[in-house]
Design a protein that fits this description.
single chain; 358 residues; mainly alpha; 3-stranded mixed β-sheet; 3 strands; flat
């Protein structure tokens, strides 16, 4: 597990004959091992543990700190003391962080130097034996061994490309890339998707605790309630949209398998009849080019990153609504401090729970 985490972090770089080293992920490393290019084990687990800057003791201390904060919040509720929205926001972050820490228990942290794997084989020989074109890759020559775009990763790349055009750079711009970016979205199996749904539901449910709290104004209370309902609704609307997109993709693949020679127009392409005037036809073609840039805004027009408008437009609307709600919650955390009841400044009287302490 630790070696897989280390590889997906970009901890291994492949050095082939007559080529610069480039990062490889866990699935690419597994491919090299299975094909006999790399001998197993690549490195001993002790080597990866030595690079890890966070050990079990440090993780345990962090969990103890956040546990004490949660116990304090629960104690305030038990004694009917005010729990501020800022504390609730912290609890929601702690909820997500704790789950992440559990899943990342074996993940190395703060690794600076990658390990170089040297093999006496040319990269073109690896690509040729796998039936791949020498230059038909996007990030690294071993893309074919691990790359698997799905609807969420395509949408995420579309969003990142917009940020890049705004000069907000993410990851490496070179080819091949010099590191594996954190923005790479791996395919999430169905079971893990529902697990993520349950975790996110728990995170959003924390904000509903302040449903009847005493906000400085009634307007702020209504905005808080609206944001809570909106975020929870967007979560399950996204679930429905995900199911529809996956069902549509399955239907499309089966249709292509049933009629492999049938050519269908690209989804979302604007068509016009012969009755249209030349000016209207020109306008339609120009509009279609603009929409095509929205569907696929990757610099190299990678066909794997094509996103239909019926998917991307609803997601952007939902993303903007979610951004507005989260921003308001953070702002309200600060605004509430201007008018707090006296019990917000009181400490938990632990002797009421354990009288013998006092």
């Amino acid at each position: 597990m630790g070696m897989a985490f280390f590889a997906d972090m970009g901890g291994f770089r492949l050095q082939t004959r007559n080529s610069e080293p480039f990062p490889i992920d866990a699935r690419q490393l597994l491919y090299l091992v299975r094909k006999g290019y790399v001998q197993q084990p690549v490195f001993k687990p002790r080597m990866i543990d030595d690079k890890n800057k966070v050990d079990v003791l440090l993780r345990a201390i962090i969990l103890c700190q956040i546990s004490w904060f949660l116990i304090t919040v629960i104690g305030r509720w038990a004694q009917h003391l005010v729990v501020t929205t800022a504390e609730l926001t912290t609890v929601s972050f702690i909820f997500c962080s704790t789950i992440t820490e559990i899943f990342w228990w074996h993940k190395p942290a703060d690794v600076v130097m990658a390990e170089v794997i040297e093999i006496d084989v040319e990269i073109n020989d690896i690509l040729t034996s796998a039936g791949q074109e020498p230059n038909a890759w996007r990030m690294t020559p071993l893309d074919f061994a691990s790359r698997e775009e799905w609807w969420w990763s395509k949408t995420w790349w579309n969003f990142l490309n917009i940020l890049r055009k705004m000069h907000c750079s993410f990851g490496s711009e070179g080819r091949p890339v010099d590191r594996i970016a954190d923005s790479c979205q791996r395919v999430l199996p169905r079971r893990e998707q529902y697990m993520l749904l349950a975790i996110t539901t728990g995170c959003f449910a924390v904000f509903f605790i302040a449903w009847n709290d005493d906000f400085p104004t009634e307007t702020e209370r209504m905005f808080w309630r609206g944001c809570c309902i909106t975020m929870m609704s967007l979560l399950y609307i996204g679930l429905v949209l995900s199911e529809l997109v996956q069902a549509y993709n399955i239907f499309q693949r089966r249709s292509q398998q049933a009629s492999p020679g049938l050519s269908t127009p690209r989804s979302g392409t604007i068509t016009h009849g012969k009755w249209a005037s030349p000016k209207l036809q020109k306008l339609v073609r120009r509009l279609d080019k603009i929409l095509d840039r929205i569907r696929n805004n990757s610099p190299d027009k990678d066909p794997e990153l094509y996103v239909p408008l019926r998917v991307i437009l609803p997601l952007y609307v939902m993303g903007f609504a979610y951004f507005f709600c989260r921003t308001y919650i953070l702002i309200e955390d600060a605004l509430e401090l201007r008018s707090l009841p006296p019990s917000a400044y009181a400490s938990v009287a632990w002797e009421k729970f354990w009288p013998h302490i006092g």
